[in-house]
Design a protein that fits this description.
Elements (H helix, E strand, L loop, with lengths): L12 H32 L9 H18 L3 H27 L1
Helix pairs in contact: 1-3, 2-3
């Protein structure tokens, strides 16, 4: 991640914004990797019905909430963010699955 000042050490909004921007770039990089795994899943799964796995979705969201709680940020925010992330991942994987086999 880019050099940045720790949140508690920020004294100006410019420092806060620079930190947020650096974190956002890091998140974008990690999301690109995560969606790479969705491409792999679309390639590996033999049946379209396997793309949506509600049990796995629940596990992923529960794990994100637990991680948030442990790290001291709002669990409800983690659940909401991961709900959107997992649904976007499923939609992307479904699209790739259909293109590869359609």
């Amino acid at each position: 991640m880019d050099e940045m000042i720790a949140p508690d050490a920020c004294g100006t909004m410019a420092e806060v914004r620079a930190g947020v921007d650096a974190v956002d770039r890091a998140i974008g990089t990690l999301l690109a990797t995560r969606f790479g795994y969705m491409r792999a899943a679309a390639r590996i799964k033999p049946e379209r019905g396997m793309v949506r796995d509600e049990e796995r979705k629940r596990q992923v969201i529960d794990a994100a909430a637990a991680d948030a709680r442990a790290a001291g940020w709002p669990e409800n925010a983690a659940r909401a963010l991961w709900e959107v992330l997992v649904e976007a991942s499923i939609a992307y994987e479904m699209e790739l699955f259909d293109k590869a086999r359609g």
